[in-house]
Amino acid sequence: MDKQEILNSIIADPRFAKNIVYEKIIPATHGTYSNFPATLPGPLVTALRARGIEQLYTHQAEVWEAAQQGNNVIVVTPTASGKTLSYNLPVLSALLTDEHARALYLFPTKALSQDQQSELNELILASQGSLPIKICTYDGDTPESLRISARDTGRIIISNPDMLHTGILPNHPKWIKFFSRLKYIIIDEAHAYRGVFGSHVANVIRRLKRITAFYGAKPQFILCSATIGNPQELAESLIGEPITLVDNNGAPQSEKRIILYNPPIVDYVQGIRISSINESRRWAVALLKAGIKTILFAHSRVKTEVAASYIREDLANFYTDNSRIRIEPYRGGLLPNERREIERGLREGTIHGVVSTNALELGIDIGGLDAAVVAGYPGSFNSFWQQIGRAGRRGGLSASIFVASSAPLDQFIMNDPEWFFNKNHEEALLDPDNPYIYLDHVKCAAFELPFTADALSKDPFGVNARDALEFLEEDGIVRLSGNRWHWSDRSYPAESISLRSAASDNVVIIDTTRGRNTVIGEMDRPSAKELLFDNAVYIHRGNQFIVTKLDLENHKCFVEESETNYYTDALVKTDIKPLSEDESYEYAVSEPHSEQSDNAAQTRKILARAIVGDVLVRSQVAKYKKIRFHTHENVGYGDISLPEEEVQTRAIALLFGDDTIAGKTLTDLSEEALGDLLAGLGNLVKHIAPIFLLCDPRDIGIAERVRDPHFEVPALYVYDHYPGGTGLAEGIAEKVPDLLRSTAKALFACPCKNGCPSCVGPEHDKTLVTNFFHALIMPSELSSIFMQ
Amino acid sequence: MSNRFKSRLDHIRNTSPAKSIKNNDELHSEPPVRTTAIAASTDTFKKHLERIRTRNIKTGRDAAASFDTKRSTEQIHHSKSTSGWERLTQFCEKYTTQIPLPCEFSNYLSGDWPSLIPHTAPLFENQNSVPAASLLFFDIETTGLSGGAGTVAFLAAFGSFSFDTASQSMVFTIRQYLLLDYQGEQEYLSAIRNELDQNNLHLVSYNGRAFDEQILRTRFLLNGITFPEHAYHFDLLYPARTLWKHHLDNCSQKTLETAILGKNRGYDLGGEFAPYAWFEYLRTGNKTKLLEIAEHNCKDIQGLADIFFVINAILENPSDARWAYDTTRLGIRLTEETKKLNLLKLSAESDANAMLAYGSECLKQGLISEGISVLTRLAHKTNAPSMLRSDAFRKLAIHAEWDKKNYQEALLYTEQALMLSFVTPQIKAEFEKRKARLIKKLK
Which is nearest to B255 in space by CA: B315, B303, B186? Predict the structure, then answer.
């Protein structure tokens, strides 16, 4: 039986068959190939042949061609389609032709850089000395002793935007040899640079371009991205230059089978189904037993460990004497060498299955697997496609099983699979000109090189830099001297500006069982509070520990081995406290009295009010649940006494008091209906606001209040996830009527019957929200919205 | 790019919600009415900047924002140069002063400097005697303490010895260069370059290899001036650590001056205030603090020369009891045989580490019986660390096996070493190997 037949038999198995809702088959495609370009240097051809590569895929050849013409390129093709080679070829060729030329590779995470270095090294080893190119990783983990040689002699430097921002650019004179001969800048996983993070990175790239220009270099960019709705637009905003899009995948694709599976209902009254973790585990076990290499995506670290343990138990019973099937959990918080060991095991085939959080969604090389099981909707469509992209090797099987949870969103997809498969890829938006972010990077840029007043039009920061510099000059942070703005503050600005919202302060996990004193893992502070509180059950690669003490002050967590029949799950409570009311807005509409007197008397009516100000977003883990393994019943609670995680940021509170048009429509609603309406509205705003703000949905938070304790009216908060705020709340304030109009449009245009993930969310009442907008918007406009 | 920005700004500016809606004349809404605070501005970008300022002040993000931001350009540009300071160019001043010679001054350097600063060995090999007049002492004050491309060296001091024909004696002259504003940096650096660009000149600094020299290199590079290379740089931080790390809490220049030289600077504005002093001058034209920093900078050179010649004196006569320092560490590093042996012998009286070094050195220099006796004493010294004792046994065993060819004796040492407790498995394994070999040889 080949794997295809095995899969067929599993699908036909009555234990699965009756709950399969839908099967989508994406037919196989043949590869399209292209001969090695005549301009490809001989040593490269030799190295490729040594690795068994005789031809290029057409997209690789297209990238080569565009790069040779001096263009910037973005290549968008699926996982495992030879993306890496498409940029390595032009880079290695340039480095061979010019012995001084250099290249910079940027990856969003350190884990990915490690991976890339080993892949490049393989290619260079395969050349047996004909590619004498030194590759160096330069990031926070690079020991001081290796840094000088990396700077001076590294031909390819592999790094990340954070290191570029705080370490490399502010010290560019040490990098003179590198920057003056910089030929290529490679940005892999470009889709990761969206929203506020992307806006920061776009500004780091502006700074990079200033520095290379100073040293007389004009590097070319090659970007890679997973499939998104707007790759070219994203790339152009990111690098601030035109770019050529290459998205015709030339790599062969095996047939892809995507199965939507809805677990059986156990409680008809409440509509509760068997947990997606249990059902996913059944799938994974069936597939693994049949010799199909499988990855299971669970969406939290705890679930990842729990699922991996379950699968191990199941397999252990069956295969006591048989050749072992090895399965590992993979998640954040493992030690780097543990992660690498698992990656290697997967590549080399010694590990047959893996349970992972979205950590394996990004391009870490784990070779090809046959099947992907996705336990519950991962939150975004792009994520889903990247996860199932892990399944499928050339000419082999590619099966993906989406196991729904009881959540309304998952159930919506199960009820309307066509909607799911016809949905467009999400767009990745960013705003390099966000004044908050822009200003931060103008400071860093002034530190790196003074701004020349007459040459701003040629500066990557553009003429707008004048406003920003004059502003900074007023505060004495820069000084205009001799027609140039110089940094004139004693600080090192990059140090206090973080590209990411979460501070990366870590807790190490120490195993103290029987006098041991071994570091077994590491975890960021907010996650530690949720997973490593005192008495928490911590599962590490299947081994159970109990937390004896979480010492946040010293960044340590002590654990001891312990066998319990339950695991723990912390309950996180988030609340918002307004700290200041800095700006208040009224949004008014004017209605003509009648058609005759349209220019004279108009009644001004307040649509809604809004307050922009500082808020404190507090999240606290105050309690945890003890959950029995297998039955998942709740066997008790415990208290957690940890300080709250506090972030001070900016928010806009949309206020619907009963003296506003919006508020009036709410007065007759029951509290429950009002809550439902606001939640539905919040869901819509979460989707629509990022388009206005050029940010990512993950950059904003939404909270609804039936009766806000501070403002004492129904309210909808939209807050910025970045500490201190990045102007998103202010951005909304300027555009509330536009936002409401677009929101109404999206709602009215949505073909769903009663709420779907694209509008109010499947759990909310669409009619309520629709009625709300009907009351807000003039009938004449309504008709026009319907017409469109 | 700039077009995009502009169009966006214009978009924000022109299409306040009202306007965009008017085009679309179904919804008649008015622009939002702002009812409080922040002055209305037509320029959205600037308005955002104002908001950011408010936020920064509230959260204390930019300390500078709370300073008095008034500045008096006139005062700076037309102020007369301060007394004693000579105006070199519009934005650069120079101050020259002579100070007394360091107390341990000598006209020529000790030939043992390479023991402490190995890279200077060729200098002393090529030259019979290195004159003190070939040294250039230097120190800079900067606008920031963390380095990086945005840190400017606004003050630099150089000190050197020369023969004064009038007084027929050596004198120590300090020359300081002060930058008065960014735009004068080019000329200011040219003046500094003249100091550095002389043949046969050797730099002396305190932590200058990692800090001062790097900052100057960056400034030269950014201004397109080549940095004159020097083959030898006596950075005293490293020798100071060798000599005093175990004696002092820290090895800062100030600590050395107090503890070793017994000198008290009196009132001294620390270098950490340098950035404030310069920025205050830029803002207000008031030079008071800046001159205090200049004085500090001058004292740094003076202290640097003092420390240099104390170390020089120690190298000349290591057993001189006037100086409390780590004799063992110097003894281990010294290359001159007699000095080394004498110093180690002295230290060995009180320090087990020195016993090991002294015993080994004795064997090396052919003082066999003295060496064996010291090493044997150490090997059996029960209150000495096991590591040292096993090292002593190793030396003894090696000597017995290879020099004396007395395998029986070597085996005895080896077995004794194996009986020591608290030695690492690696060392145990090494002795086991030796033991096996010796047994084979004995057969």
Answer: B303
**What's phi and psi for A633, nearest 5 deg?**
-85, 155
Q: What single string gives the DSSP state of each residue in A488-528?
A: -SSS-GGGG--SSSS---EEEEEE-GGG--EEEEEEEHHHH
The CATH class given to the A3-27+254-422 domain equals alpha beta
Architecture of the CATH domain B73-316: 2-Layer Sandwich (3.30)
Nearest beta carbon to residue A492 from set B21, B148, B182: B148
Tokens of A596: 């005759």
Can you name the CATH fold of A33-246? Rossmann fold (3.40.50)
- Please write the tens of the pLDDT for every residue from B379-437: 999 898 989 999 999 999 999 999 999 999 999 999 999 998 877 888 899 999 999 99
A441 CB neighbours in chain B (<8 A) are none
Residue B405: count other Cβ atoms within 10 Å of its Cβ.
10
The CA distance from A613 to A730, in Å, is 9
Check: CB of residue A17 under 8 Å from CB of residue A262: no
Instruction: Give this prediction's pTM.
Output: 0.83
Is ipTM > 0.90 here?
no
A501 vs A47, higher pLDDT: A47
What's the whole-number mean pLDDT along residues B240-252? 91
What per-residue confidence (pLDDT) applies to B20? 30
> Do the Cβ atoms of A471 and B49 come within 8 Å?
yes
Calculate the average pLDDT of chain A: 87
What pLDDT, in 10s, does the model give residues B135-188?
999 999 999 988 899 999 999 999 999 999 998 999 999 999 999 999 999 999
User: How many interface pairs between A and B have CB atoms less than 8 angstroms apart?
Assistant: 191
Predicted confidence (pLDDT) per residue in A241-250, tens digit: 999 999 999 9
Residues of chain B positioned with their CB less than 8 A from the CB of A468: 49
For residue A332, the model assigns a pLDDT of 81
**pLDDT value, residue B56:** 66
Question: Is the CATH number 1.10.10 carried by domain A435-496?
Answer: yes
A590/chain B closest Cα distance in angstroms? 5
- All residues of chain B having their beta carbon less than 8 Å from the beta carbon of residue A788 are none
CB contact residues (below 8 A), chain B span 86-145, against chain A: 143-145
The per-residue pLDDT for A698 is: 83
Q: Report which listed range, A2-11, A158-167, A262-271, A282-291, is most confident.
A: A158-167
Question: Best mutation site among A179, A238, A490 for testing chain B: the one with the most B CBs within 10 Å?
Answer: A490
Residue listed under structure tokens 């700004």 = B9
Within the 246-305 window of chain B, which residues sit less than 8 Å (CB to CB) from chain A? 275-276, 279, 282-283
Residue type, A83: K
Does A436 sit within 8 Å of B8, measured CB to CB? Answer: no
Domain ranges of chain B: 2-66, 73-316, 327-442
Class of domain B327-442: mainly alpha
Half-sphere exposure (CA, 13 Å, Cβ side) for B7?
Answer: 4
Please say whether the beta carbons of A506 and A516 come within 8 A: no
Strands of the sheet containing A451-452, edge to edge, are A451-452, A484-487, A478-481
The three-point CA angle A656-A659-A663 to 5° equals 30
Inter-residue contact B327 to B354 (CB < 8 Å): yes
Residue ranges with strand state E in A526-644:
537-540, 543-551, 556-561, 566-578, 583-592, 602-628, 634-639
Burial of residue A156 (CB within 10 Å: 0-12, 13-18, 19+) is buried
